[in-house]
Design brief:
Chain lengths: ~575, ~230
């Protein structure tokens, strides 16, 4: 381009953001996406402000919000595992996405999908990326502040296993669960609570079901033996709830094949399938790549780094009630830490074998790091693909498929695994308007705004006494949607269809289709195959081929953005 | 101290700024939050020391050099807003750096455009010459029904029925007093229904008799029309 053309381009990008055909670097990653589509009409874009087109009779139609929408996010760069990557506008009505496409006034503009009324409020999305809110299916809510951390990272749905600094890994008391559901109403978050299914009879599970759990947790620390696995899955099949499994790292009663045999082809969510977070040593990773095992990773092993192994021994001891003065405890912890399985786990993500990422917040993972680590991992492969020449440079330049695969891990796929996809997980008409806006530069590292059920509920705000809303120090925290009784209304409690539970304020929504979900349903994943881990834990193969990745010394989305 | 929320925020800025300064002194390159804190703090402290508004901007800009920053950070340092306490009260300061000082080949969130867009519109374009016969400046935006613009703009309004200015969305044409400006017009799109504006049409543009009715109102309401001279 000539200098003059370049000036025109910069001015246009500054006003309208990226357009179709443009390339956008996500944060400081090596992921450069190409904008696949643009729902705007060039020259007739809906623009907000003084002297702009979003005015009555021009871009706004003088009708009620019922005939248009309550809120519109205009012309943002949508990245969605199902919809793809395009510039579009999103209309929201009564908390749900009501329309997606070109926004404006059909009286004066061609092919309008999102009718914007004279009473509609607007969030200009130019220069911003919009995604579905993140879903974190592995949260130890040991501190209420974990909710703040989750929201501050762009997570809008969590599956919690406790609500207090007690050893829960599932809560079963109906009385306590009632309080748990009520407490979470303080945050503009969707929350599901897991009951404990480390039990050899169904009575504790029945109690938890009545208490409104959305699923169950089997944990080795409270027993992941064949009888408990079978009890939980039989019960879950009867009641359509998900089961999350942290397998037996001791191989005390069965090895990984024994666990598979107890599972017996039924759907189960295998937590931290690499094994550092717990599970059959050294080969729990063999659970990945199977149709009925919905495998996930927790975030400390993602974007496999040079310090990953070193941080884990102390983390395991601290998180699992062990004692570093006991040599046998230290030995057990060390068994769980293997470079080879971490290196392989990361590659299995890139191949589309492991479909879900999560945090393991406060229980060996970071509540506010899942977006960051998921995309740092994606970037690592974009980078390593160039280094080892395994992908043509032109494919690397447009990382669209890789980006969409990785966003599925934190949005659509966890929703499917836990039976939430009738409400959340994608940007689609009818779903809850749980949306995250990110500046291009800060994508996956720090959200600009979190919209929960159609209301700005969390995000960046500045000096409260200033003349403008962006005066330093800018901090990420609650927006209006996090206050008053509204916080309760903006989220739902994911429960089950058997519980007759009524909360003071918050709505309960049963999960569904948790028992028929399979790996092949996972969006942009579903690659199946045989994972093998050598008895020493030093080599991993996938369908007979050695599989690994190089540890990175510098993770993207991190050093440039965190103080 | 009776610190207000704004003052407490100033302390957060100070802490972050000091942290950044310490790291810089140790020879580290600054990242995004560190750089913003350092710059903001410099502005606040300059104002405290009695600087004027423009001096405070200068203090912010000179508080950091490109070589103090990690690669790819400089282009992110735009539009940094800070409210500082000046001797004449609290004032908003916005810090920007000249493009030449912050440009880099590779940075977070960059947009790479290979060629500029050309409008592929096949809309019929007509031209009108417009004279502002008032004594104040008038501006007309992209999606305004051109027929109904300020009565003191004189032009052949017959040509403007159902038309709007052919300019990028959200921009405007300026009509300084007593000057003749030529403007390109294109037809209004969509269902071509105009509700509101000055009430000249208030219905479907292409309804039978609407054009005649509208042009009659233009005359009745005293809009200037006809070729300007």
């Amino acid at each position: 381009m000539t200098p003059e053309e370049l000036r025109i381009a910069q001015e246009d990008i500054s006003v309208h953001g990226a357009r179709v055909g443009d390339f956008v670097r996500l944060g400081d990653t090596q992921l450069v996406i190409r904008v696949e589509g643009d729902d705007r009409q060039f020259g007739s874009e809906l623009q907000m402000g003084f002297g702009k087109s979003a005015r009555d009779g021009m871009g706004l139609k003088s009708v009620t919000t019922a005939e248009s929408c309550d809120l519109v996010i205009t012309n943002a760069l949508l990245i969605d595992a199902i919809q793809g990557i395009k510039v579009t506008s999103i209309g929201i009505r009564n908390g749900r996405i009501s329309a997606i496409g070109r926004a404006g006034n059909p009286d004066t503009m061609d092919d309008i999908d999102v009718v914007v009324g004279s009473g509609t409020v607007l969030i200009p999305g130019e220069g911003l990326i919009v995604t579905a809110g993140g879903i974190d299916t592995h949260v130890h809510a040991l501190s209420p502040r974990v909710c703040d951390a989750a929201l501050s990272s762009g997570v809008t749905t969590i599956i919690a296993q406790e609500f207090g600094p007690f050893w829960g890994v599932g809560v079963s008391s109906e009385w306590a669960l009632k309080h748990g559901h009520e407490m979470f109403s303080a945050w503009p978050l969707n929350v599901g609570i897991l009951g404990r299914a480390s039990a050899s009879t169904t009575s504790p599970l029945e109690e938890a079901l009545a208490g409104g759990v959305c699923g169950f947790k089997i944990h080795e620390d409270t027993s992941a033996h064949p009888r408990t696995i079978d009890t939980a899955l039989t019960f879950a099949d009867q009641h359509d709830v998900a089961v999350a499994l942290h397998t037996d790292g001791l191989n005390e009663m069965q090895d990984v094949i024994g666990t598979l045999s107890a599972i017996d082809g039924r759907a189960v969510h295998a937590f931290h399938v690499e094994g550092c977070g717990g599970g059959h040593a050294p080969d729990v990773l063999r659970l990945a790549g199977r149709e009925n095992i919905l495998a996930s990773s927790t975030n400390p092993t993602l974007a496999y780094g040079i310090n990953a192994a070193d941080e884990h021994v102390a983390m395991i001891i601290s998180a699992h009630g062990m004692n570093s003065d006991l040599p046998s405890d230290v030995a057990l912890a060390k068994q769980r830490v293997r470079n080879a399985t971490m290196a392989a786990e990361n590659r299995l993500h890139d191949l589309g074998v492991i479909p879900v990422t999560s945090s393991d917040a406060l229980g060996m993972g970071r509540a506010d790091d899942t977006w960051r680590k998921t995309f740092a991992m994606a970037s690592m492969f974009a980078d390593q693909a160039v280094l080892d020449g395994s992908v043509a440079a032109s494919q690397v330049a447009t990382s669209n498929e890789r980006v969409l695969r990785h966003i599925a891990k934190i949005t659509t796929n966890p929703a499917l695994v836990h039976g939430l996809s009738h409400e959340v997980g994608s940007v689609q008409v009818g779903l809850m308007a749980d949306l995250v806006l990110w500046k291009y530069a800060d994508f996956a590292s720090k959200p600009n705004m979190v919209i929960k059920f159609g209301i700005p509920a969390w995000g960046v705000s500045g000096d409260p006494g200033a003349t403008v809303n962006d005066a330093q120090p800018l901090v990420i925290g609650p927006q209006f949607g996090a206050y008053g009784v509204t916080a309760a209304d903006l989220g739902v409690q994911f429960t089950n269809s058997s519980a007759a539970l009524t909360l003071s304020r918050r709505k309960c929504v049963p999960v569904k289709n948790t028992r028929t979900v399979r790996s092949s349903h996972m969006v942009r994943h579903g690659v199946l195959g045989e994972v093998q881990v050598s008895p020493s834990g030093e080599t991993v193969t996938f369908n007979g081929q050695p599989i690994t990745s190089q540890p990175i010394s510098q993770a993207t989305l991190t050093r440039r953005f965190l103080i | 101290m009776d610190l207000t929320p704004s003052e407490q925020d100033r302390l957060l800025l100070f802490t972050a700024g000091q942290l950044a300064q310490t790291r810089l002194t140790r020879g580290l390159k600054l990242n995004k939050p560190e750089a913003i804190a350092l710059i903001s703090n410099a502005v606040v402290e300059a104002a405290r020391a009695g600087a004027t508004h423009s001096q405070a901007i200068e203090a912010g800009q000179s508080s950091i050099k490109h070589s103090d920053l990690m690669p790819g950070i400089a282009p992110l340092l735009t539009g940094i807003a800070i409210e500082a306490v000046f001797d004449d009260g609290r004032r908003l300061v916005v810090i920007n750096f000249p493009q030449s000082e912050i440009s880099e080949d590779e940075y977070a969130g960059q947009v790479i455009r290979l060629e500029n867009f050309q409008s592929s519109s096949t809309a019929k374009i007509s031209k009108v010459r417009v004279k502002n016969e008032s004594n104040i400046a008038i501006s007309v935006t992209s999606h305004m029904h051109f027929l109904e613009i300020n009565p003191k703009l004189k032009f052949n309004r017959e040509l403007a029925y159902g038309m709007r200015a052919n300019i990028p969305s959200g921009t405007h044409v300026d009509f300084p007093p007593n000057q003749i400006i030529e403007v390109e017009l294109i037809p209004i799109q969509g269902d071509r229904i105009l509700i509101g504006f000055a009430g000249i049409v208030d219905g479907a543009l292409d309804a039978p008799g609407m054009r005649e009715k509208a042009m009659q109102r233009i005359i009745e309401f005293g809009y200037l029309t006809g070729e300007p001279s």
